[in-house]
Amino acid sequence: MSSPALKKISRRVIGDNLWLGLNGEGNQPDLVARLPVQAMHPEILGTEEEVAQAQFEEIENCAASTAEDVVLVLLGGRGAQALYRLIRKLAESTAIDPLLRRLHVFTQDALAPMRMSNGLSFVRDFERLLGDEFFGKVKSFTPMRTDTDDLENELGRYIGKIESLGGIDICLLGLGPEAGAASHLAYIKPGSGATAADVAGLIPISSSILEHHIAKFKVGGSTITEADEEECRKATHILTLGPAAILGAKRIVQSVVDAATAPGKPASYRRVMETEIADDPETRAEQLNENPGLWLRLHPNVRSLILPDVLGS
Questions:
Q1: Which one of 152, 185, 193, 261 is separated from 267 by 20 to 30 angstroms, measured CA to CA?
Q2: pLDDT tens digits, residue range 98-108?
């Protein structure tokens, strides 16, 4: 794969949030105002296993559409766990080795600062679900490093590597519920000031979110020590991809499968689906800042996979 010339990384501080962008990508609100609004077309499947099969077929189709390597962004949380179990089983044989050898795998968010070996990190969860064979066969795996005193520099290095590979080919996304039926993508939080020119951000995290994260990982079966919990509760930020990375992905595959255990998701999903996004640049920017899930409505190539209870059926 040919690598484009790397752009200089710019930074913006909005309150306690730090956003990094690539110079020359345009500015807000003019950039976001030019993006056509898309309708949401949820695809309702019967089980998580059906969602997993559809996600896997998307990865296969992406690889089949190009002779180049494929840049894949993994989704943390519930939405892709069945997919990862499917891939793990296939990776234990040689059935998908040609595909795996072409994958450059990245993560989309991470708690920080934290040891990379902490059982409460997304990286450890990916390793648990996908297995050693998967990581031994893919062309590269690049997590967001959280064991550094210079998180900003690490984030810059991370987005620089994605850009050097030609950008994101396929990005797996979920939808996180927020107060007032708002939502977050990756960890782009409401009110964090993210714009269409921001590739990644460093976002403060609350103690309540940390407690929710710990509880979710325990339910999921992760092996967690007391030291892991203690360190996790001291995390101060989340590293996250930003709107520019999501909008720049060639294909978005969203999955929402956990409405039963995250009862705020149906209302958040419906609000994303039904909101009338304004044409006025400033109003549109305010809508996106207040409800970051709406960024999906500005991407022209999204497949949204959900279970029936997400729409209350």
A1: 193
A2: 999 999 999 99
